[in-house]
Design brief:
Layout: H1 2-6, E1 10-15, H2 22-27, E2 29-37, H3 52-57, E3 60-63, H4 69-81, E4 88-92, H5 95-107, E5 113-116
Parallel strand pairs: 1-2, 2-3, 4-5
Length: 119
């Protein structure tokens, strides 16, 4: 479905499923795309996995760790203590006003956060 919606695949997939979703995540990538494996809800072992799709797409597969509850609580205490806030470049109040922001994010290669609030 991602290939159809994007006309060629997505840049990045965050895969939390593991064994049963990895092939689908790789297939959704554009050439040169990245899968970040951030979980393994369905297990770690992918029986008889054919790596051809990884090679054909020149894909990058990255392992990622998000930490445990203690790490999460420590992070939130540090954010509060140091009064950290995300840098939000644009703020949209409706789906219609958000359209230009989506195009802006696509055209700019820097990393930014955009906030969209829908009622």
């Amino acid at each position: 479905m991602a290939l159809e919606l994007t006309g060629g695949g997505v840049d990045h997939v965050l895969d939390v499923g593991g064994a049963t979703t990895m092939a689908q995540s790789i297939n959704a990538l554009r050439t040169g795309g990245t899968v970040s494996m951030d979980g393994f809800l369905s297990g770690l072992t992918i029986p008889e996995f054919d790596v051809t799709s990884i090679l054909q797409k020149a894909a990058t597969i990255r392992g990622s760790q998000v930490g445990n509850r203690e790490h999460f609580e420590n992070m939130n205490r540090a954010i509060f203590r140091h009064r950290l806030h995300p840098v939000i470049d644009r703020y949209s109040r409706s789906a219609e006003s958000a359209k230009p922001s989506h195009f802006w994010l696509k055209e700019n290669s820097i990393s930014v956060k955009s906030s969209f609030k829908y009622k």
